[in-house]
Amino acid sequence: MAPRKRGGGNRGGLSYIFCCFNSNDHPEITYRLREDFALQAMEPALPMPGYDELDGMFSELVDELDLSEKHREAMFALPAEKKWQIYCSKKKEQEENKSATSWPEYYIDQLNSMAARTTLLALEKEDEEERNKTIESLKTALRTQPMRFVTRFIDLDGLTCILNFLKSMDYETTESQIHTSLIGCIKALMNNSQGRAHVLSHSESINIIAQSLATENIKTKVAVLEIMGAVCLVPGGHKKILEAMMHYQRFACERTRFQTLINDLDRSTGRYRDEVNLKTAIMSFINAVLSQGAGETSLEFRIHLRYEFLMLGIQPVIDKLRSHENSTLDRHLDYFEMLRNEDELALSKRFELVHIDTKSANQVFDLIRKKINHTDAHPHFMSVLHHCLLMPHKRSGNTVQYWLLLDRIVQQMVLQNDKGHDPDVTPLENFNVKNVVRMLVNENEVKQWKEQAEKMRKEHHELQQRFEKKERECDAKTQEKEDMMQTLNKMKEKLEKESTEHKNVKQQVAELTGQLHELSTRRAAVVPGGPPVGPGPPGGPLPPPPVPAFGGMCPPPPPPPGGMMPPPPPPPPPPGGPPPPPGCPPIGGIPPPPGAPLGPSLKMKNIPQPSNALKSFNWSKLAENKLEGTVWMEVDDAKVFKILDLEDIEKTFSAYQRQQKEAEDDALSSKKVKELSVIDGRRAQNCNILLSRLKLSNEEMKRAILTMDEQEDLPKDMLEQLLKFVPEKSDVDLLEEHKHELDRMAKPDRFFYEMSRINHYQQRLQSLYFKKKFAERIAEIKPKVEALSRASKEVLHSRNLKQLLEVVLAFGNFMNKGQRGNAYGFKVSSLNKIADTKSSIDKNITLLHYLITILEKKYPKVLMFQEDLQSLSDAAKVNMTELEKDIGNMRSGLKGVESELEYQKKRPQEPGDKFVSVVSQFVTVASFSFSDVEDSLIEAKELFLKAVKHFGEDASKMQPDEFFGIFDQFLQSFAEAQQENENMRKRKEEEERRAKMEAQLKEQRERERKARKAKANGEDDGGEFDDLVSALRSGEVFDKDLSKMKRNRKRINSQTTDASRERPVTKLNF
Length: 1070
Known about the structure:
By secondary structure, this protein is mainly alpha-helical.
């Protein structure tokens, strides 16, 4: 930002000139008129020379003024009379000032003599004042004398005299006004472009100026900080300031370079209690150090420097400084905090977070670990940590220096740019990070590392797969154990309950039996000759009635010979598939050979046989009993065989498929064994892809199916895909025909053949898939049912919701008249229509905004109703139709598993077949869990109906997603309106604060203007460097960045509100 240009009203002999320019841009360096100077009465004593001679004389005068190019042009554009008048006035002033005090040699001699007397103890008060008056006179001369005075002072090495004086001062001189005046001389010298360049090029000037921070003289500290802060704004000055602060750290024997600044900023006793100027100067210097130099573009550099201040405890000090309520100081505090917030937000985005708690070592470590985990840098990161364990940790000796060196080296690695330039002081000279990194990289090593990394990556992948497999197996066993324990506990409770009921029923039966016996005895006494009725055992079964003999009834068939049991009933059809046609041969049966007689009325076909197996033609044969009277009785394919080129057909549609190889292997392909494939090509290809993903052999697959995947080899998604590749009957028939060529079969064909030999393979696969998905489906359904129950209870029992409805009812009856008013209740859907009513005063305010305002004032407890309704958002997502459909699917699936279990129990078990044992245990647990979910659903439905009726809605038409969705939408609208009310309140407070601040600023500027106007011949504040100091002091140099950050902050706050930040932004005083 360009420095603010000051007006020239208080400047020396040419300030009146610039009123002729009709412009607001004043020259950067002006001069002050004496108070007794009257322009109206001044007349040139000499006649005006010619134009050429006047221009030459005037050019020499302008060169002495050290003006910028713009103002030089303005001076030369003046009329000739004005030029001559200015020249004569300046010459007259120079004649009057030809005393010895107008020459630089005088002041240099005085400085050297004063520096030789190293103490003020022997001086009288008058002598001290005289010395101070001499230095003040030098300061005024450096500001007001022509350019040749400054040039002569520089040539005579006057700056070195001032610096030597500063270095040789004793304590009394350091705390005196002389010290302040010497700093003022340097400031006056830097107000000239040539003098400023001379000061910045001096090897020790900035370091010696920084040493003056050790004084207790507040005015001296303020002057030093203003000079150093302004130097930060000058190109190349920022690095010099950082080096000067390191020099001051060594000079003052401080632990860190900025420790003195933070201590002075925090001091609030004695003369520092109400000293705002020093605290403002410190904050302006800190902001200049953070935002200038490399800090203008480098986020890392700003975070690096700011961390030094934060470690020194600047944040609580800033919070305490707010109590001064000084607008200029608050501006610098605002800039510091807003720049920090912007940088922390930018750093958080790198880690995809909202905020990083840099105070927490655990969070910082976790972020770094997650960022480089599973990368090539992770071993080196661990190596750094391991070697940190070996670093010295004792509190004595040079332990801290080791850690300081490590800290500085890491800082240098982070901050150094690609050209090897370090924006901050470096612990290692000639240390180019980029060159060192380049030296570490070697092509051979990189190649070896890549190979080793690839090998380790493969091993890691294999280990990861094995680990995930064991983890799945462990999770499955753990889940089964937990389900079993829950089921046992519930069954135990149910058994105890049923035992109690059974005991009660048994007592009732005994009582009824006694009553029946008594009645029977009475009846036997009343009816003579009746047979006595003997009472049976209590609770025992009644004797069976005698079976009458019927003539002609066939006896039951005898058992099969040999004591064999009758064959088991046919297995149930697979779910979703058609039943097998009657009369089909069993799997593994041999079809009739070709040429066998097919029927009494059909001729035997003489079909030529191919020499090799051919591709199958997947047609659907007509049954023989349906051929009568059709066209098929009139055709004869034997004629066609004589016409066809059977060899060409056999060649074209051979079942032996060539393996696809590269062109160069074509010559060798004839020597390889041909693969036989009878499965459809597309289906075989997809099956081959699936098998390659499974990475299991056919034997492992078979073992996994028989053992119900005890080792968790088959993930759920793979099982779902396997169900798409169940061998069909046509596939099985073709595979049986070529089973003698099993070794030559393709991989999918061998898989189909092996799986077809497993009894009820499809049913087993479906049962296994249902078993694996059961817990997941229960976990999906149960939360929905529980959310439905919780939400129904919440709306039934919330007193705050009831009070809110009462207030809304009062609003509605008050605002509505006629048929729309005088209501005793309203539909819950009306809640979402509250926001539709706009205010007639402000269209941005709705009835909902107003309702919230009333609740905050009159019913603050009602605002807590949102906490009473925590489950509404989950319940609003429950669709009852889909929920009941899911329950039905699980019921049918469980029934299918039970049917398959009954079938498998009736047949002999193969070795290694664990279907019955595993599924029996699963069915026991699953049945109980499913019945528990069904009971919960019934209870949830009852609660929901009760809740719907509670609010006067039609239970037959209202579904949970609609009913709870109304409340959920109202909650969201309510929260948004609450936030909008809060934003409007903050906006109003901010506008009032801004208006108040603008009024105060306007009043302050008016006071400053009057003070400048009434200021007598004294210290001069004009000049280019003074403009930098003034802009830095007032904070105007940061106005542009501060306004930009405020706009960004408002935009971010409008998008999201983060309440978990470490430091609230509300402390910023805009």
